[in-house]
Amino acid sequence: MKNVEHIGIAVKELAAAEQLFSALFNANPYKREMVESEGVATSFFKINETKIELLESLSADGVIARFIEKKGEGFHHIAFETEDIIAEMKRLQEEGFILLNDTPKRGADNKLVCFLHPKSTNGILIELCQEIK
Questions:
Q1: C-alpha triplet 69, 38, 72: angle, nearest 5°
Q2: CB within 8 A of 30, min separation 6: which ones?
Q3: Closest C-alpha to 14, from 2, 31, 27
Q4: DSSP bridge pairs for 32
Q5: Is the pTM of this model over 0.85?
Q6: Beta bridge partners of residue 127, listed in sequence order
Q7: Where would I find the VOC domain in this sequence (predicted)?
């Protein structure tokens, strides 16, 4: 793993959260994107080298909606950048981590992604990311 790629925050209403974070960071989001495979709408902020991803569920029964229902709005995941996501997935699986998908899938912000199950990471959802070239 190279570095923290972004921090994901689950929100009920993307537009309202964008206003709040725009005021907090004194900056506007640089990208808004629908990720159908994950059932989310996303909005990205970048403060220096730190990226924050806001996530809104596209449906009432989506993963983010269920997360918010159970835990409320707030911290959802931390993502780490990788050079070779396939090799990193294999390494982590060999170390005993539980992967939520067997192969990387297309995620937001032009990335291939894979998630690690929170049961194997002390309750934290971890995302692996690799830039699609």
A1: 20
A2: 44, 45, 46
A3: 31
A4: 43
A5: yes
A6: 79, 115
A7: 3-131
Which among 63, 50, 52 has a CA at the least distance from the CA of 20? 52
CA 88 to chain centre: 17
**Structural tokens at position 82:** 């990788």
* Calpha distance 129→81 (Å, rounded): 5
* 122 phi-psi bin (left φ>0, alpha ψ -120 to 50, beta other): left
Tokens 């994950």 correspond to 38
Three-state SS for the chain is: CCEEEEEEEECCCHHHHHHHHHHHHCCCCCEEEEECCCCEEEEEEEECCEEEEEEEECCCCCHHHHHHHHHCCEEEEEEEECCCHHHHHHHHHHCCCCECCCCCEECCCCEEEEEECHHHCCCCEEEEEEECC
**Distance in angstroms (rounded) separating the CA atoms of residues 12 and 99:** 27
Amino acid at position 60, single letter: A
Specify the residue for token string 């170390």: 95
pLDDT of 1 > 90? The answer is no
